[in-house]
Amino acid sequence: MLGQGQMGCARVGARQQVRRNFTGAWRGRGFGIAIQGVLAASVVGCSRERAPDRIGISGIDASASVDTELPHSSLHPTRLIGEVFLEVPALGGGSKIAFGRGVLLVGDGKGDPFLHEIDAGARRVVRSFGRLGDGPGDFKSVWDLSFRDGDVDGIWVFDLMLRRLTRVSFKQPATAQVIAPQDNGVVRLAWFGPNLLVGLTTADTGRLVLLDSKGAVVSRSSGPLLGGDSITRQVRLASSAQASLCVQPSALRFALLYTRAGRVELYGEKAQLIGRAAVPFPSDGQFQRDARTGRWSALTLRNFYKGCTASEAQLYALFSGRRGSPEYGDRATNGVFIHVFDWEGRLQRVLQLDRDVSAITVDGDSVLYGASWQSDAVFKFRIPPRE
Length: 387
Description:
Shape: globular
Mean pLDDT: 84
Strand order of the largest sheet: 2-25-24-23-22
Structural class: mainly beta
Radius of gyration: 20 Å
Largest sheet: 5 strands, mixed
Distance between the termini: 22 Å
């Protein structure tokens, strides 16, 4: 069981426009500004005033380390040697990836096209599609990919910029099915069983929301925020909204993994908090207060959890642990380490990849696929059994 202390545009023109809109968002630079007010509260952390004195810094125990990447040697990681599974010429940069029904779907962070469908068995690109726009079947972002229980030939794409969930059919042609969540503050959204959706929102109360299959709110619950009570609540809310969401296939549980904190939370069927996972580098968020104005803002001293994927038995958490530095450049938000937890929150093992990835997915517990913002390839890693 969890201990209490264990409980974070021509085509080229279109690509450039999307890159301008999203590069900062995907790489964690000024998230609130990059998505143009979706998380407006987070602009508090992007002020261009005089640099604040760092007093009252909160929750930066591990993140304040001088190391550019947090050390994992004491965790005895299992090293995985990857291979280029497939090169995808139209892929600008892999920001999301999901496997299911024998298909790999890769979300393109640079967009137009936004999606690439791969027949995993045949190792071939079926199609690259999803143009930039707001019409049926168009996209402006690929924020989350999820499968709906019982939907055997489709996958759902949450577009944060368009505020909608679109079904992509693996059988062509198909009319795009769209669900628009009634809660306009949803920043993460995934299927949670055949009839419910689970979302993370920017709401002050009830920031976790369950929606029905038409997008109507069924219930809300309030999970804990990052940071302490002395920090401005709006700043805490904005920082806490920067997280990944992963659902257990059986929809018994889901997890929130924070970008700005070393924290992973587990939730049950009613979106009730079950506890926190035993993460190796715990942190409660990164904040500072301006000594002159007294205003609190969020910091990104270090990137923590940058993505996740799940099997029925395990939660795979992509961990960056990197500070922004010349050594890493635009790879500061990538990762090579994967923290593997069971659904009780116990750390089972740590995997170390031989190359950077920005997104991961698994086929059971034996194969892992990865994509990178800086590459047009999909990588494959075989996961050995635990000793």
